[in-house]
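for the writeup, i need someone to sanity check this before i put it in the appendix. the sequnce is what the collaborator sent (i think, or maybe the updated version? ugh). structure was predicted straight from it, no edits. if anything looks off just tell me and ill rerun, i have time this weekend
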Amino acid sequence: MSEIKGTIKRVNETNVISEKFQKREFVLTDDNSEYPQILQLQLTQKNCDKLDGFSEGDRVNVKYNLRGREWTNPSGEVKVFNTIECWFIQKEESVSAPQPVAMAQDESDGLPF
């Protein structure tokens, strides 16, 4: 399991591949380093609904697994495919700006305290 924080760049609709398989992809900008990375992640099956309520610009925390598989094409060449499989997504709680602290009043107003 790995975790990443970033900003949602795009949320796609659910893509029904067959009656037994569906996936939903989204694009995340990992802007936590000097060189931001654009990553495409996917959710599958029942997890597709976890993207409901998320939109472009949302700051999120994502937990994911890396998946990989080999496929041999008809000419015998072996290809490797990788996916980033998201299984948890949560909006980052916004940190509100600190409230200004009232300055102490001048004690020359005659009050004893």
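Residues 13 and 24 are 6 Å apart (CA to CA). The chain is about 0% helix and 55% strand.
thx in advance!!
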